[in-house]
Amino acid sequence: MAYAGIPAVELRSVSRAFGDVRAVDGVNLSILDGEFFTMLGPSGSGKTTCLRMIAGFERPDAGMILLHGQDVSALPPYERSVNTVFQDYALFPHMTVGDNIAYGLMIKKVPVAERQRRVAEMLELVRLQGLERRKPSQLSGGQRQRVALARAIINNPRVLLLDEPLGALDLKLRQQMQLELKAIQQRVGITFVYVTHDQEEALTMSDRLAVFNLGKVEQVGTPAEVYEHPATPFVASFVGISNLVSGEVAQALTGSPAAFSIRPEKIHLAALEACAELDEIAVDGVVRDVIYLGLYTRYLVALDIGVDLVVAQQNLHTSSMDVMAVRGQRVRLIWKREHNQELSASD
Amino acid sequence: MKKSSTGGNTAPLPVALGAWIALLFLHVPVLIILLYAFTTEEATYSFPPPGLTLRWIGITMGRTDFWQALQLSLRVAGIATLAALVLGTLAAAAVARSRFFGKEAVSFLLLLPLALPGIVTGIALRSAISLGNIPFSFWTIVIGHATFCVVVVYNNVVARLRRFGNSQVEASMDLGANGWQTFRYVIFPNIASALLAGGMLAFALSFDEVIVTTFTAGQQSTLPIWIFSQLVRPRDRPVTNVVAIVVILITFIPIVIAHRLTQESNE
Hints:
The complex is a heterodimer.
Chain A: E1 9-18, E2 21-31, E3 36-40, H1 47-55, E4 62-67, E5 70-71, E6 82-85, H2 97-107, H3 112-125, H4 141-153, E7 159-163, H5 171-188, E8 191-196, H6 199-205, E9 208-213, E10 216-221, H7 223-228, H8 233-238, E11 243-245, H9 247-254, E12 260-262, E13 268-270, E14 280-292, E15 296-303, E16 308-314, H10 320-324, E17 330-336, E18 341-342
Parallel strand pairs in A: 3-8, 3-9, 6-7, 7-8
Antiparallel strand pairs in A: 1-2, 1-4, 4-5, 9-10, 11-12, 12-18, 13-17, 14-15, 14-17, 15-16
Helix pairs in contact in A: 2-3, 2-4, 3-4
Chain B: H1 13-36, H2 55-61, H3 64-97, H4 103-115, H5 118-131, H6 138-164, H7 167-174, H8 179-207, H9 211-216, H10 223-232, H11 237-266
Helix pairs in contact in B: 2-11, 3-6, 3-8, 3-10, 4-6, 6-8, 7-8, 8-11, 10-11
């Protein structure tokens, strides 16, 4: 299915308030057809409210929501060609897995034979063959999650909305499901709109993502763009770990007071006598803290000019004994100027 | 002291004794009724009964005033319960599902008739019905009973709906079901046992109601009122006891079933 040029989902200056709280505040978004689009943000940032407005559970106070170019702002959920995977799965406890998955087709009065065939297809897609007659209460968390997914996808929605679908799963299962969701999305070719507060998840799965803060969209871009070129201090600090530098310290380091961010992994931890190249910045400090994380080690370095920087170094040639010995020592930090990311103010 | 090896703590003797005394206190009078339904004496009771007979059952079955009273009670209880099921469910849906101004107050006012003494409800209804120049009839009894039946159903259903949460309703709508389909396929199956339990409790309450009935009835007598009137006329006294057993059976069975149903769904 191609709808060339027309976005699958479009939000035009959409706002929604709950009492005095402006949950969503003038959001503009354009989600392309077939895209895996993530709305990332801390709790209360408006991302879930946006999703619920696309689904039709909430009405916007102002603005317009379009699905494939059609204004659906006033339509109830059952008249929109989107389906939702809920955070708590919202499976029907009195129905079997098969009946849960077939629910949408049953409502549309699809003949029983056809229903059974499609349910079997879905069970295969989410790898739950043989569990058709179980009740949701007899399934594990991961299995329930798959049922919720199958129940939504069977309706062939043009857009699938997922509200923190992996939030209740443990880390291992979550990572496995991330890959699986992505694979399923590529197979069925449906537009996925995915809500999460987990920046790692967002970076792993998305084609593009929007970073939400306080009801507004701070930045939209591919994971690489958002990670490497955060547009605002909030994005820099929320997506990955970042050192934010501004004012006098920025002046001392770069010669300009403009705020910038620098990723911990871009900074090289060197001995005091190390020399910097022309395109590099060098600054001295004392290692205040060392956190050994296996794959890499995180150092907290107090600069002589008065701020702390976080530095991450791969444990390529170092053991935990070596890195711990660095604590309290004077070091020189060196990084390339080009890795400084200039920031505009959040508001 | 040696504890039993089965693991459960046995209650200390005074507590066990207290429990048994309380149980006897509650149920011995009922046993007396059971016993004297079969006595050979006609007017006075002496212990032990001089002899036992099944004669009174036959006599009771032959009395048309008993049958009329029983029929009236069943009809009143049935219709009051039906009204309560509809109104109680609607009220519960409104309170549990939506946010509106004064919701807490409405919820409290709905529960009030249950806490209010029956005598107050009775006087209030009698005054209101007289003021409206409505003749006392079968329907005024039904209205009186519905006041507390609605509460019982409402209470059961609202508790279930609160636990049920809203996301299943949203899921159903999301999958293309409109309001009616969502009620039929998702909400109703989940509240059915609460409805049944509430309905049975309401039926049992209505069936043996005396106070409100005396205020709202005209010339009709429901079964409990009929029993009460029998006490002043000591002819065929054991007949009252037989009828009392009928009342016990009719009210006890639904209460046990209702209890079972709520118990099961709480697990």
